[in-house]
Amino acid sequence: MLECWSIEATRSIANAVFHYSITPLLHYSTNMIGEGIQSTNQRKHSYVQDHVEVGFFTDPSVCIGCKACEVACKEWNEVPDDGFTWSGNSYDNTGHLGASTWRHVMFLEQDRQKGSQVSGPMGLSAESEDPFRWVFLSDVCKHCEEAGCLEACPTGSILRTEVGSVLVQDDVCNGCGYCVVSCPFGVIDRRPSPLPDAGGAFKCTFCYDRQKSGLVPACAKVCPTESIVFGRLDDLRARGAERVQQLQEAGYNDAQLYDPMETSVRGIHAFFLILGQPEAYGLPPKPQIPTIYLKSAWTSAFATAIASIIATLVAFAFFS
Amino acid sequence: MTSDSQSEKRLEELREQAWKDGVVAGRGVDVAGGPIPRKPGYYGEPVVKPPVWTWEIPLYFFMGGMAGMSAVIASAAIIFHQVDLARAAMWLAAVAGAILSPVLLIMDLGRPHLFLNMLRVFKPQSAMSMGAWILTGFGACVVPGLIAFELHAHQIFPGTLDQLLRVAAGIFIFCSAIFGTLLANYTGVLIGATAIPAWFLHRILLPIHFGTAGLGSAAAVLELLGYRIPALNFLGFYAAGVESVLLIWLSVNKHGVADRAIHEHSSGWLIRIGEVLNGPLAIVLRLFGLVPFAAISFLIGALVSRFGWIAVGKVSGSDPESVFAAERY
């Protein structure tokens, strides 16, 4: 059992490296990695000064699972380590986004064919076909068009920047924890003691500090295959649609964009291409901003208030 | 292959367990990618974040509810000339609402020294912001209201000043009753308007439950303080009656996997125990004339169910299947 499993694992790594890193890059076809200096990931910009909406487009079909984005994010933002544990979940020992994890590379193991890939015999006998694919996707704060955390924040600590991203001002946050339960994607969290700056809520800043100086966010800057692309949101959306079409033509029938425009979140600024269903990535298929529940909840609250006052007046008027 | 020795039996057990569950207790890891059924979502990781709140918040829900409704009882008692009861109720409102509640809320903050930042903005779309303002408004009315009331009751100042104090006390106490009703049930809105499935699915029920439990708790404490009057007995019946209806509503209005945290796990037991104590049991005890026992039963129930709802949030928020299932509603 053990021996068979390690052979399978080795083959999937080889498979993944071939199918994910090399083949799709041929589309971009230069002798440099990705688009080289032409890429929006490497150019200086003035989006903050020009008030241009920016975004991340994250594409698992070219991700090689190197976790450079996680490392770059932690280093640039000086995010503390939150423990070293083995999860046993493929190559993912990060787990999930949180107060001290602002980029998280997911490693999905799925028992299905990858596009037009000719799957070799993975089992012990030469005839048996055992479809298997390994998908990597770098998860991040979605910077929602209608952000649950921003609406919930009672201190005004969370704000919308000139480039449309959602930013937590750490010196204002008093750690009430309401944004934590208001995020439909489970991104933001309160940092526990004894980590540095404990007690406040933290999440991806979209490297607002770098962007103000015309620099690209750290994760996009280091991504070797441009699986993470930083740029103008409208450009990226066009690029995402194009990439989905490209992949579908190449036989990736389950390639789709994850950008929930028709829910109350009204689209996300850091959107993803996904292979398969959003649930497999731990992404809610129909995320809703919790403020849509306010009307019915407050109506109930006012009705209860009135009922309580009437009950009390009745009690004293007729029972004393 | 197999041997009868203890150690070999243990190894066989481990193998069985690993095959059956995909993971063994202790230091074992989940063989997620192996030939074993996987967990829902992404390796069973939570999709939304469970609340970070600890014991202070459910206790605050309890104190705030009791204090707020106590101010309502005080106002009604003044209108119907029950000055003694009104004074006791105002003291309860001030101690629980203007001292204990803010202390509990501040204790739960990640950065307690920045608690004043709550008043930097006024944000109707944030129930937490509205709650901070409601609590502030309540404190700002209930404390001067109580002081003016006590000064008037003890006839400290003569003549016109005393009449002014009487009017001021009336206005402040009336305002604290308005803030108080909201203080008691905004907490239901607070957790009802979140991304936690078991909470937002019951956003109508929660304010009714929290507000009514607050009213019943205030009446119960005043009864235990010795005010055994029919008016408070009626309020005890009213609150326990409403809670009984909510218990039935909760057991009828089920959403399957989406709100299973309310019906399963230890969180489900907290909800059930709490609702039985402040619903049916409180009514039965009151019917038999065991008013102090009914009051104690109601108070324990109100407290346990507040802890229950926070526990439900933690279970429900950590359950990816609940989040996916809730999106159908």
SSE layout:
The complex is a heterodimer of chains A (320) and B (329).
Chain A lengths: L1 H21 L24 H4 L3 E5 L9 H10 L25 E8 L22 E8 L7 H5 L5 E3 L5 E3 L9 H5 L6 E2 L10 E2 L5 H5 L5 H5 L5 E5 H17 L5 E4 L11 E6 L18 H25 L2
Parallel strand pairs in A: 1-10
Antiparallel strand pairs in A: 1-8, 2-3, 4-5, 6-7, 9-10
Chain B lengths: L5 H16 L34 H24 L3 H26 L18 H27 L5 H34 L4 H4 L4 H20 L5 H23 L7 H4 L1 H14 L1 H8 L3 H27 L2 H7 L3
Helix pairs in contact in B: 2-3, 2-5, 2-7, 2-12, 3-4, 4-5, 5-7, 7-8, 7-12, 8-10, 8-11, 10-11, 10-12, 11-12
What does this molecule look like?
The complex is a heterodimer of chains A (320) and B (329). By secondary structure, chain A is an alpha+beta fold. Chain A has helices at residues 2-22, 47-50, 68-77, 148-152, 178-182, 208-212, 218-222, 233-249, 294-318; strands spanning 54-58, 103-110, 133-140, 158-160, 166-168, 189-190, 201-202, 228-232, 255-258, 270-275. In chain A, the strands form four sheets. Chain A has a four-stranded mixed beta sheet. Chain A has a two-stranded antiparallel ribbon with strand order 2-3. In chain A, strands 4-5 form a two-stranded antiparallel sheet. With 329 residues, chain B is mostly helical. Chain B has a single domain (56-326), classed as Formate dehydrogenase/DMSO reductase domain (Formate dehydrogenase/DMSO reductase fold), CATH 1.20.1630.10. The mean pLDDT of chain B is 92. Classes of the chains: A alpha+beta (320), B mainly alpha (329).
Which residue ranges of chain B are poorly predicted, with pLDDT under 50 across at least 5 consecutive positions?
none
CATH-scheme architecture of the largest domain in chain A: 2-Layer Sandwich
Classified in CATH, the superfamily of chain B is: Formate dehydrogenase/DMSO reductase domain
> For the report, how would you describe the main beta sheet of chain A?
4 strands, mixed
Number of strands of chain B: 0
Oligomer: heterodimer
Q: Helical region count of chain B?
A: 13
